[in-house]
């Protein structure tokens, strides 16, 4: 069965021309992945019938909040997914699990699908604290939430580093995450996923898909990842 493929384009594409080129090269496979572009280019992807998500959103309803973009407004644009808790947002924007919890509630109230990112630091990994950290993040981010979410396990130390845990480690963590839920939660892996390691990562039996960062900005690489994930 094919797996979910999520392309987090972050802020790599900075020109209209680069976005147009990306869209044109991936039109034929647009139904095989979910794209999370920069907010300013969301409408362009939606107009070309890509399934889109947003990389983050405001916790507030529409109102006097300068620079913010509400989940309600994004839904009206046509997005289907919201990516929350990514480690870069946690670090660069000082978002904590309590704020992420409020955003998840907003997204679910608007009938959007939530992808919750969780992951441990290198220090926690080296001290065998991964499961403790992940459980804490899940419990806090999903406090008083009954709706279903998608979990993306992204070791903080693996993002952009070219390093990944072993398949056995990812399989064990995925199994552990699934055991914390009373529904069949989908668990993705993210963190230096590339065309060079996708064949190996795709062998993990209990992974439901992949969240891809920089590698997803190159159409030919993303197409290869999609091809493997369909096997």
Strand and helix layout:
Blueprint (H helix, E strand, L loop, with lengths): L3 E5 L7 H11 L7 E3 L5 H6 L3 E4 L16 H7 L3 E4 L2 H6 L4 H13 L3 E6 L3 H5 L3 H12 L8 E4 L13 H13 L6 E5 L7 H4 L7 E4 L6 H11 L2
Parallel strand pairs: 1-2, 1-8, 2-3, 3-4, 4-5, 5-6, 6-7, 7-8
Helix pairs in contact: 5-7
The helix/strand order is: EHEHEHEHHEHHEHEHEH
The neighbouring-strand order within the major sheet is: 1-2-3-4-5-6-7-8
Classify the fold: give the CATH topology: TIM Barrel
Report the CATH superfamily. Answer: Aldolase class I
Describe this structure in words.
With 231 residues, this protein is α/β, with parallel strands linked by helices. The chain has one domain: Aldolase class I (TIM Barrel, Alpha-Beta Barrel), CATH 3.20.20. 38% of the residues lie in helices and 15% in strands. It is built from ten helices and eight strands. The protein has helices at 16-26, 42-47, 71-77, 87-92, 97-109, 122-126, 130-141, 167-179, 198-201, 219-229, and strands at residues 4-8, 34-36, 51-54, 81-84, 113-118, 150-153, 186-190, 209-212. An eight-stranded parallel barrel has the order 1-2-3-4-5-6-7-8, surrounded by four helices. Helix 5 (97-109) crosses helix 7 (130-141). The longest helix is centred in the middle third of the chain and has 13 residues, at 97-109. The mean pLDDT is 95.
Highlighted features:
231 residues; globular; alpha/beta; 8 strands; 10 helices; TIM Barrel; single chain
